[in-house]
């Protein structure tokens, strides 16, 4: 099975027309567009199964709350035949796809000022249904719930291949070397390498705006984001591959 992997297209900044490929399934690992617009876009662009996992920017959907955006995305996805995996699993018959936005573990290490400033951008843009804006406490709660759900799925026996799709990164190996000394990792990455191994064949993520392709205990980890446009042309991820295919062996 061939997977066409894309993330962080940020269509709210500039359009993108994906190339035709011989992929069997398209994977969109979040931050495609604001609200349900990315789901609608995907329904118009691809004539094959599409798996869509929301990123944090999908929720920059003011005045809709996070919960209302989830509902809107689900309605559009059901009408369009898109597999929206927001703590959901899609089984193709030979591969199970486990999807969750994830968010990040803010208790893994002390959250410093730089990480807080990054998170505050989300907090100023994302409204919650009960009133008020997203907070670091809410992010931690969502992360813990999502992690508990993900662990339960991976503990469920499955005879085929398993692909995990999260928007946020699952390993510090997804921190680009230029940020190796940065104190911002808590805003982007959680350490979930203990979940990798024989139960996960492939882990796809986005959010970091750098390409990655590495292995942890036999689990391949892939990230292929377009990122933000530069004011003088091009994109902040020069390694982005619009036609990236990854094959899952039978």
Q: What order do the strands of the largest sheet run in, or round the barrel if closed? A: 5-6-7-8-10-9
User: Can you tell me the CATH class?
Assistant: Alpha Beta
Low-pLDDT runs of 5+ residues are: none
Helix content: 10-25%
Question: What can be said about this structure in brief?
Answer:
By secondary structure, the protein is an alpha/beta fold.
Mind explaining what this structure looks like?
The chain is 22% helix and 19% strand. It is of the alpha/beta class. The protein has one domain (2-247): Metallo-dependent phosphatases (Purple Acid Phosphatase, chain A, domain 2, 4-Layer Sandwich). The strands form 2 sheets. It has a 6-stranded mixed sheet, covered by helices on one side. A hairpin with a 3-residue loop joins strand 5 (88-91) and strand 6 (95-100). Helix 1 (37-45) runs parallel beside helix 2 (66-80). The protein is globular, with a radius of gyration of 17 Å.
Keywords:
alpha/beta; five-stranded mixed sheet; Purple Acid Phosphatase, chain A, domain 2; six-stranded mixed sheet; 250 residues; 19% strand; 4 helices; globular; 11 strands
Fold topology:
Elements lengths: L1 E5 L18 E4 L8 H9 L4 E3 L13 H15 L2 E2 L3 E4 L3 E6 L12 H13 L10 H19 L6 E6 L35 E4 L6 E5 L2 E5 L21 E3 L3
Parallel strand pairs: 1-2, 2-3, 3-4, 6-7, 7-8, 8-10
Antiparallel strand pairs: 1-11, 5-6, 9-10
Helix pairs in contact: 1-2
């Amino acid at each position: 099975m061939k997977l066409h992997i894309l993330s962080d297209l940020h269509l709210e900044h500039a359009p993108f027309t994906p190339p035709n490929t011989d992929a069997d399934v398209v994977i969109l690992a979040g931050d495609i567009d604001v609200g349900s617009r990315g789901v609608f876009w995907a329904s118009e662009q691809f004539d094959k199964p599409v798996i869509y996992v929301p990123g944090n920017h999908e929720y920059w959907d003011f005045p809709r709350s996070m919960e209302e955006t989830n509902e809107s995305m689900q309605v559009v996805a059901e009408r369009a035949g898109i597999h929206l995996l927001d703590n959901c699993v899609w089984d193709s018959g030979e591969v199970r796809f486990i999807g969750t936005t994830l968010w990040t573990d803010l208790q893994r290490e002390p959250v410093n000022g730089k990480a807080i400033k990054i998170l505050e951008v989300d907090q100023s843009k994302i409204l919650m249904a009960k009133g008020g804006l997203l907070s670091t406490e809410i992010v931690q709660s969502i992360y813990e719930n999502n992690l508990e759900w993900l662990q339960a799925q991976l503990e469920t026996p499955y005879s085929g291949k398993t692909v995990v799709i999260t928007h946020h990164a699952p390993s510090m190996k997804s921190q680009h070397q230029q940020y190796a000394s940065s104190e911002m990792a808590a805003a982007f990455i959680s350490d979930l390498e203990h979940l990798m191994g024989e139960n996960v064949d492939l882990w796809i993520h986005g959010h970091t705006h750098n390409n990655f392709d590495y292995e942890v205990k036999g689990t391949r980890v892939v990230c292929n984001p377009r990122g933000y446009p530069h004011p003088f042309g091009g994109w902040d991820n020069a390694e982005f591959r619009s036609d990236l295919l990854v094959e899952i062996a039978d």
